[in-house]
Protein 1
Amino acid sequence: MDTSISNHIPPAGEVNEQETDKHMEILPDCGIKNVWAHNLEEEFASIRKLLPKYCYVAMDTEFPGVVARPIGDFKTTSDYYYQLLRCNVDLLRIIQLGLSFFDEDGKTPIGQYTTWQFNFKFNLSEDMYAQDSIELLTNSRIQFKDHEENGIEPLVFAEFIITSGLVLMDDLKWMTFHSSFDFGYLVKVLTDEKLPQEESEFFEMFSLYFPCVYDIKYLMKSCKNLKGGLQEVADQLELKRIGPQHQAGSDSLLTGMAFFKIRDMYFEGMIDSNKYCGHLYGLGITTLNNGQFRHDNETV
């Protein structure tokens, strides 16, 4: 975990921080807004006002780890990885979702929040989780008592996001980092159903709700010497994080910053959508790396 987290940033409040780092000139005034059940409608109204100008959306989730592994014969490593994703997403509940908004030049909204951190209902006494993941999130100052008492019901969230203009939109571009599990949870929330048995069926649903997605981990295949998890990549790009690592709002904001820096440094400001759009790192692959899969900050 990142040990450089600023101690003055409260986990359940808002973050407003002036950023003067030379690599952050596109983000002069960023804020992270926490969303709970009581202000969900109000904050979705604020988000709708940003569209369509701020049509690049960076996304990250926090979820309670990996608690199960599939058993059986698998034709490809992609098939194994999808079944790993499916059985865990079906068993577990999403904890946080972070959304950060940018325009096509990588600029964030001026004079208002740039990031919304949605906090879902989660009960440590009733819901399943991996102990190490909960310890990591607790150390990142996620307050599980608040999630239990004030968290958003996924079905209510789904009703709002469906009508928000964020999904089912061809002109909206999603920016993520190693996001197969992230989208697994979002598809589950949107459909209120378990994930499809077959990976191909999942991709049909995924591409319907999210027609244009850029997974930075997939882009990195074409980026010489760029490697590692999100924080490692941000360090290589000399980007400064705002907010605590392993909270979805901060991670989504850093993901968006990394995307635009990579686009300019490695793709001359233009990423070929035909080549890179719609691919999720870890799915659709046929090779295994030393017998292990890696999900951002965790080997699974």
Protein 2
Amino acid sequence: PITVGRKSLPAICLTSDMAMVTAVANDVGFADVFTRQIIALGREGDVLLGISTSGNSENLLHAFETARRMKLVTISYAGNDGGRVAEMRDGGLVDFCLTVPTSSIHRIQETHMTLYHIMWDMVHTFLQDRSLLETTDEHI
């Protein structure tokens, strides 16, 4: 989303290009639909945000492995216990794993959407005023 009065930021949704998704799924396998796009588009320092209610989506797990090799910052939103993506965090393959501790798919997805909007607003806020990222004893 673009916020009035704030600089627009480049972002790509890897599920939007259905021709790419179906071509990779048919020719390579669905587990690599994101991996192929990350290899083509990702650069060191970019951010990969992966969202999965279960945390067990094979294509997302492969995406995080590829992103780690390419030195992208990795953030995952998962539900319940975080699934295998939470284990990837513990193994250092995912930088941040935000888990919604419920089995209700509706609550998980609603919370993921809220987290996404909060994160988007925080990124814009911190890019607009980097001094907010500075920490002093007064802020602790």
